[in-house]
Amino acid sequence: MASIVAILSSVLIFSAFSLGSSLSLNYYDKTCPHAESIIANAVKNAVSKDKTVPAALLRMHFHDCFIRGCDASLLLNSKGSNKAEKDGPPNVSVHAFYVIDSAKKELETWCPGVVSCADTLALAARDAVVLSGGPSWDVPKGRKDGRTSKASETITMPSPAFNIAQLQQSFSQRGLSMDDLVALSGGHTLGFSHCSSFQSRIRNFNATHDIDPSMHSSFAASLRGVCPIKNKPKNAGTTMDPSSTTFDNTYFKMILQGKGLFSSDQALLSNPKTKELVSKFAGSQEAFRKAFVNSMIKMSSITGGQEIRKDCRVVN
């Protein structure tokens, strides 16, 4: 029965996605030539006031693409009895939606009804990486916005607790390879995590170990200090790596030291191929940057929408 459910969910995921063959680099050259600079300015203005914005936008794009493709369905608000993706468990801590709203408002002033929310988010994610010291790339454009957003579908998002087999299945269902899995995991170089995403590794891990044995003992001790059993501050947690506002390869170096924050991070060492890539990226910032760009273009080309929304939070 479980295998039938898994097969059905795979079919549903595949039927919702297609790799965006209709996307092009010069999609807005004639219809909205200033689109990219308008979006870049909105991101830059937000980042100047809040250094957590780049990580938020990169995560937002990733979470959007993994459900129904990169169709901005994550941006839709819940309405009536329909609970939208942004209110699903993996997305309740996703923030900085106002940055996309701001860019979209300006786009609608200059070229109404032309630039999709999905393209706006894809471009904003690229700009977020650049402003964090990461690489730039040409973003293929022409995505449409989706009209469906269901919190229940976010159950298919990869979890911080996933092992390597579960990660591989999740990525392959979306047409992404093991190489893409490791490169895109490098996005964890930016950002912050709440205790809830890793506390199962630092207390009562299993019947034999209180702490996950794959975690460096001093790292585990520091996390136990950040996430006490009682009187835990509401937003208690830690940065994803020590240089959490800079796009670099520190994340991979941390994994090799047993200091990956999530089980899914440390799991990258449990497979020979992914372990080799972690070592490669830890040793070469340039190799990581190149692989990340290729995988971001591939992931952000998973399309699935139907319209161009006037307001990213509601369907037309």
Would you mind describing this structure in some detail?
The protein is 45% helix and 3% strand. By secondary structure, the chain is mainly α. It has two domains: 18-156, Peroxidase, domain 1 (Orthogonal Bundle); 164-297, Orthogonal Bundle (Peroxidase, domain 2). Strands 1-4 form a two-stranded antiparallel sheet. Strands 2-3 form a two-stranded antiparallel sheet. The longest helix is centred in the N-terminal third of the chain and has 15 residues, at 2-16. The termini are far apart.
Which features does this protein show?
globular; single chain; Peroxidase, domain 1; mainly alpha; two-stranded antiparallel ribbon; two-stranded antiparallel sheet; disordered N terminus; 316 residues; 13 helices; Peroxidase, domain 2
**What would you report as the Rg, rounded to the nearest angstrom?**
19 Å
Overall structural class, as computed from helix and strand content, comes to: mainly alpha
Could you say how many structural domains there are in total? 2
**CATH topology descriptor of the largest domain:** Peroxidase, domain 1
Q: Element order, helices and strands?
A: HEHHHHHHEHHEHHHHE
CATH class of the largest domain: Mainly Alpha
Count the DSSP helices.
13
Can you tell me the CATH architecture of the largest domain?
Orthogonal Bundle
Give the strand tally.
Answer: 4
Please give the alpha-carbon distance between the first and last residues.
40 Å
Furnish the topology, listing elements before pairings.
Layout: H1 2-16, E1 18-19, H2 35-49, H3 53-65, H4 97-110, H5 117-131, H6 164-172, H7 178-185, E2 192-194, H8 199-202, H9 217-226, E3 237-239, H10 250-256, H11 263-266, H12 272-283, H13 285-299, E4 302-303
Antiparallel strand pairs: 1-4, 2-3
Helix pairs in contact: 2-4, 2-5, 3-5, 7-12, 7-13, 10-12, 12-13
